[in-house]
């Protein structure tokens, strides 16, 4: 049963809205409030599927109710009710997160159609949230070694905050996984997580990629383009391989962190951004600072929290768990039964030198599953692991 709150100080209009909604669907559970303060008390104590809110209200107007609700229950769906002179304000409420607005006197068909769409949207958002929680399990780090347990504890402490995090470690150790896990466990998990591989973008394009550009800023800029920082607004931006970023781009990232605003290439207009920054690198940034290749002030801005992801050789006790995880995942991808590894095969894999870390281990497990027997033996590892 959908719970709908009607906030309207004019009792005649409120009665009409209640009557229309009950005739449309007798499964709607209707609640009423005649002023903003009463509405807020009900919103705090009840999770409504939809709020129909007049803009002009006594004690606390509709815009204030919308803003206050979005702070405590950001998933709330609001449809604003506006008089003729309130249309400009109604448009403003859309920018604040309202789903739609309806003019007074309300048109019956328009009202019912908006209510149906708004409730369907609410259901889709809830389903998407559940799906995201299921997907987020894929980001959990596999392992029970002391090193991994320390990282898990740190993530649990740091994720709920907005503290910037610098993740270090060799290639293939799972730095991206740590970044995703931080985002999924954060208060920003419903917002976007935008990934930028700084090493993969040419230095002359990195500023445009991060901060966007305006039409005509350079030869190929045929239209305005939003940058990654804008795309990540209200969410997280993950700057992978930040040690490969040019010094000029570093200066602009530093400004974005200091002032929470960016400027598109070719523009002089500042754009406010609300972004959490997580960065990662396989380089020793302190050595890069000494060489003049990385800004020390940016390093200290980024490294509020340092998380070092160990090489696989430093946590070989986790290899059996990782092999089991990859074997199950590969079986699901290929639509086959999961293959088991003998204790001898696992023991041999633990002795190898994994210079490519977890990424290399995953490739070897897949190769063994394809080329090995029904059960992966020590002999299979010796034949096909190619170490």
Automatic annotation (TrEMBL):
PROSITE patterns (UniProt xref): RESPONSE_REGULATORY, SIGMA54_INTERACT_2, SIGMA54_INTERACT_4
CDD domains: AAA
Keywords recorded for this protein, A-Z: ATP-binding, Nucleotide-binding, Phosphoprotein
A matching Pfam family: AAA_lid_14
Domain Response regulatory, first and last residues per copy: 3-119
Modified residues (4-aspartylphosphate): 54
One GO term of the biological process aspect: regulation of DNA-templated transcription
Keyword 4Fe-4S appears in the UniProt entry: no
Keyword Nucleus: no
InterPro entries assigned: AAA+_ATPase, AAA_lid_NorR, CheY-like_superfamily, P-loop_NTPase, Sig_transdc_resp-reg_receiver, Sigma_54_int, Sigma_54_int_dom_ATP-bd_2
GO molecular function, one term: ATP binding
Stretches assigned to the Sigma-54 factor interaction domain: 141-370
Family matches, as SUPFAM superfamilies: CheY-like (SSF52172), P-loop containing nucleoside triphosphate hydrolases (SSF52540)
Identification of the protein by name: Sigma-54-dependent Fis family transcriptional regulator
Originating species: Paucihalobacter ruber
